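Weekly structure sync, notes
Attendees: PL (lead), two postdocs, one rotation student
Agenda item 3: pending single-chain targets
PL asked that the sequence for the first pending target be pasted directly into the notes so everyone works from the same version. It is reproduced below exactly as submitted, 268 residues in total.
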Amino acid sequence: MTPLKISLVVFDWAGTTVDHGCMAPIAAFQKAFKTYQIDLTVAQARGPMGMHKKDHIRALLAIPEIAGQWQSVHGSSSTEEDVETIYTSFMPLQTEEAQKHTQLVPDLLDCVAQLRARDIKIGTTTGYPRAVAATVIEFARKQKYFTDFDVCSDEVNQSRPAPWMVYRNMEALGIYPASTVVKVGDTVPDIREGKNAGAWSVGVSQTGSEVGCTLEKLEAMDATERSRCLTQAEQKLFAAGADEVIRTLAELPALIETLDQQLAKGMP
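Predicted structure, written out during the meeting:
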């Protein structure tokens, strides 16, 4: 019987393969809420990152400080109609911001080349709806990053942390069982999406939302502060259930080799 091996890696987009620090959604959320006289801090805007953006808005409105602002400004608690209204305002802003943050993260192309040399398929999932993701995917292809399949948050009945986007990748690419699949992402919903799918779930810290820094800002940071930020992000991803956390995608091919060795020994 042929030993199992990793056959599919499902990457996230912003903060994992593009947009170092996952910056695009932050400005869009802040601008959208400002339209309704609500001020979001960066930390608040970043908190639910990785979810479907409509779910993200619901989560923001449930934060006591933001709920209090809404009550004070609008004279009542927010409603599902308000969620829809904010989301409608958010969408063009998100598309605009995403177009500004399409640079591939360092090491991605070399990482993907090594994975393809191992006959591994490349899939993706994202908290972006298709209308936003289409722009990101287009710019990624111009930079020579090509995927085998892409699924967006508005193309499944339930987005992260539900496993459906990962399953859609598996079905489309004919890959099973889930033990031969690795989900790679930078947020807690990413990690839980992978675990709920029964796949290996790998966090990436340095480029991700939990650190939340552009490459330039990260490189300019004091070494002690940088180490503190990375460690804090890694602890959060491990606490969410990550099987492993890597700092950059340069570490992923070696990790895949380790997982293949475990699978060859019959280890789940």
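Discussion points:
- The two ends are 16 Å apart (CA to CA).
- The mean pLDDT is 95.
Action: rotation student to compare against the earlier draft before next sync.
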